[in-house]
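Case study 2.
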Amino acid sequence: MKKVLYYVSAAAAATAAIGTSYYLYDKSKEDKGEFLETKDGVSLYVKKSGKGDTCLYIHGGPGAWSKSFEKMGGEELEDFLSLIYLDQRGCGRSGKSLKRDYSLKTMMNDFNEVVNKYTEKDEKIFLLAHSFGGILAVNYAHKYPKKVKGLILTTVTLNVLRSIKNQIEYINSEIDGDLKFDPKKNIRPQFQLAMHKMNKSGKRYKLLTESTRTARKLDKINQSESTKLEFAIKVWDYPEYSKDLKPMTKKIKQPVLIINGEEDNSIGEDFMQMFNFPNAETHNLAGGHLLYYEMNKQFVRLIRNFVSRVNENS
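Prediction:
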């Protein structure tokens, strides 16, 4: 299986849940995207597809990409949303930064360049974020409130340290280990040791899903093209990504849809402790970290209804 440095993209999804559905990936039917060159010379992979309100998908990882979401259920949203699939700099099919600049400020500038090119003037968009992408989405909505119509957060973290602590505890339970988590020390070696132990046990796939079938499908998509992993490596150099964003959520005035997985071992049982949005609705589904795939029908229905309500009230 391809080695990916996941911060918080870990899950134990419930595969026996009602409404589970599977999509066959056919590369021959894939529509190619294009590349947008940023002001600092990074080629970003972007694909816009669908109809209706524009929605920027913000993938997690860090170090993941947009293709796995697109081909594992994201396409089902294109009946009512015009989705912008973006691979973040240093991720997926996008290029690396020559200056190795992966700061939060630079990521926000990237998103802004994409939004400005792929939307009409003064058009407001939805943001759809998964996992670590929640940190990026909330920061963007806070910085550019006039550009965001609504936020859709599915199994996201807004507190990386809390999520890493939860993952290490979950790994201990799976391997009968005694790994320690100390937020006052360097997080990177603690996290990498836990990942090494989980990989050695042969259970690393459980950090994404309990289903071996889902893991094989995800692995097939992830190996379908050569991808970049530089952001996954460089992210550790930026403490700003590890801030607790709960205080910031109080300042987000846009409507927010939160979709949690009741069995999400990546985010943890106390996921609601991360949020304090003044205008949010929350739905807990009987699944794990990959709800957009393993609970796709419910996932799509919740988003469709949310988009309709936001438009009715705007």
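The first helix runs from residue 67 to 71.
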